[in-house]
Amino acid sequence: MKFFKNINARISYFCIRNKNLIIVDEYNKIYYLNEKLEIINSFKLPLKNKADEKSVKISNNGKFLLIAVKKYLFLWDLETKKLIKEFNEQTTDILSVGFSKDDKYFASGSISGDVYVYNTELKKPVLKLPKHKDFITDIDFDESGRVLYAGGFDKAVIFYDLINITKNERYLHLKPVKKLEYEKFLISSDELSYVVLWKEDNKEYKDIIKLYKEFSDFFIDRDFLLIANKDSILIYNLKDFVIENENFINLNDIDKITVFNNCLFVSKLNGEIYYKDLFEEKDELLNAVLKEDFIKAYDFLNKNPYLKFSKEYKQLKYILDLTIQKAKELFEKDEAKALSILNKLTAVRELREKIEDIIENFKNIKRLKFALNRNDYYLAYKLIEEYPLLKETKYYEDLEKRFNIVYEKAVEFISKGETENAKTVLKRFLDIPSKMIYIESIFNNPELVLKLKKAKEERNFKEFFEIINLNPALKNTKEYKEVMEYAEFLYKFIEKFIKEEKFEKAKKALEILKDIQGYEKKARSLMEIVDNSLKFLEFVKSEDLKNALEMAKKYTYLQDLKEYGEVKTKFNQILSKAEKYALNKDYLNAKKILMSANILDTNRGKYILMMKEKEI
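The chain above was modelled as a monomer; its predicted structure follows.
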């Protein structure tokens, strides 16, 4: 890593806002860095006394800064560098603060376990949450602003419902919770770097990373979670749930980390800041790729997984695919040359198994071609069975085409009662085990096969599977195979419709899929998603925000819908307006606006109507 700067004070907080890296030190001096890593602004906040801050956060829009000093909470305007307000609701020292994702609210948690929620616009406390039995060590909000997460010194992660004003606790950590952060889902870590990746429903976990090392910090960047201990930084892949590199960075006294403009910044306890260009090896990677030195290329990738986000990595994948495809094609013309190309790739550990499999299979392509030219279908299918990668070849495609042609002719002959003609056209396939099951079915149950064929063509799958259930042997027919292939195709199309929010089209396709055996459970599962999505959209259309958000909380996949963001914004605006009316003792308008969103009867609605001017 490269030395960047020594600010001679411990870093309290890193964040990226408005294309700037903002650094706050323990004496509340603030530094702004631009994308060229130049310090473009710095100033110190004029606090009354020497700051002994316990927690610092900057709003997501970069405008406000929260500082907790003892039992007091200070809200600053970073544009004017002026104190907006000092809050003194907490009776004990504040250990944690946080902003909601839309910056409409902020919260503080204290040693006594009290958590207060404030309205940023009104600059007043609007909610006191159920007390926790131990210190509140960190705070964050979910994307909707409906859930507040808190870490406890007693190892708890606390989930506060800000509408029903309830809390749930989960105890998965081994030590006091040190940090938690919500980014698509919640991640929390304790003092031993026992890191929990929570599921979207906040009830179970996706994974637990057990490092058993003194925790310093973590940072979420793209698909990576960087976890810092006192002397090293690990990279964990959030997509594949695997550790990419256990010792990505080694440095003493690591304190805070962040990623800005493709640079990893690391602060030490003494105020020294170091950085690493996460793509600094990209030119070396490209040179290795162009020289087709794949061993060296993968060595770079193993040492620095960030290179997988580079265009040079895409070039590597492209060249590898071309090289492998070229070798496959060469097996037919020049096997020695094909082996020469692929044997070089077996030296790469990550590719070895795949390449050895390709070699074993494609060494038999000449035999497949020879068998096909001689119409030796028995040998051809035997080779396909032993070497399944040969299914990628044009010869396998030709082989299947030949069988389908004679199969259709045989069915036609049988429909006319010409059994001997059917046997004649199928003669070359009669001794092939993989095809005999289809052939026997049309001779043993000719009438049923014709009914099956008709039901398939009419897409009457209910009748199709009634025939199958009465005659299980018909599962060996070509018609059954084609229906199951169609089902898989339809299933993928439905998933695409759902992703594109074309729910009516998805529902229509699901009405077909539900009648296909083996897909009933999948169809029910997707139908539930479609029905819930349509119901959610009905709530949105009728402006029933309460029920819309209740559904989104229960079925977290609804939070991916574009309409969810609009509902969330409108809901928070309504809450804020109602709080404003209530604080001004205009309870009539507060009640009206709460009724408009159907949240008057919720605990939050009742709470707002009980608010007074100077107390919660």
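The chain is about 40% helix and 25% strand.
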